[in-house]
Amino acid sequence: RTVYVNGEYVAERDARVSIFDRGFLLADGVYEVSSVLEGKLIDFPGHMGRLKRSAAELEMALPWDEKALLTIHRELIRRNALAEGMVYLQLTRGSAGDRDFGYPDTDTPPTLVLFTQAKSLVDSRSGSEGIRVVTQPDWRWARRDIKTVQLLYPAMAKMAAKAAGADDAWMVEDGMVTEGASNNAWMLTHDGTLVTRELSHAILPGITRAVVLEIAEALSLRVEERAFSVEEAQSAKECFVTSASSFVTPVIAIDDVSIGDGCPGEVARRLRAAYIEESRRRAI
Ligand code: PMP
Question: Residue 217's domain is classified under what CATH number?
Fold first, then answer.
């Protein structure tokens, strides 16, 4: 695989980042994952807009504009002949060559790393069969709206889900679902209203979430952006999650309680198909 590190395209075994990099020592970094269909990027401006915001919230320099970042993404897709999968981008504050909590001088070069990951996204088992989730206390930090590389807790939550025989975890705070460990959480009430939590510091503003909200509006579905409890989701008509790499994926059980008839819901399936169609149309 060819990867990108600080201005160079190199074979992955030749890629080098300092052990003093703040991304490595302090998780002082942000990231984005953009999906690729038929060799083209999905929701790219949305992902780069969020990257810019994450960096700004952390006073981290981002000396590449959207056009330069698009060129790097496209070059990696080309060099790796990627038809379907993801491009991962990570930006860290770099390092002044020592371990220090204080931010280094603003002229310290940041570290930018990108790599591709081939994966079947449209025809995935979870997409067609749905996933089972278990709830976990949301013990992440209080600025989940910033897409940082501090992913130890989500990794622990996913391992707990796996140990319980489930596929993924939903995070719960004060009895209310915040979001999935790596996706946004949705439910459909029995009167046909789509519900997903409102944006705040408590959740990541999902790019897929925003597009699905647009699609739902175009399909004249009723939508409410508000918090919902685990019990409300368990007794909902349908549940699903959204993310760049899972698109719209039905949730068929929460803590071993089946949702609806225990099969992927009709609205989730429609939204998944519509999202894929719209993404293909908008891909660049
Ligand atoms: N929430 C969290 C915690 C995530 O890690 C992700 C995946 N990046 C999402 C939501 C979904 O965001 P997006 O649709 O932009 O992939």
Answer: 3.20.10.10
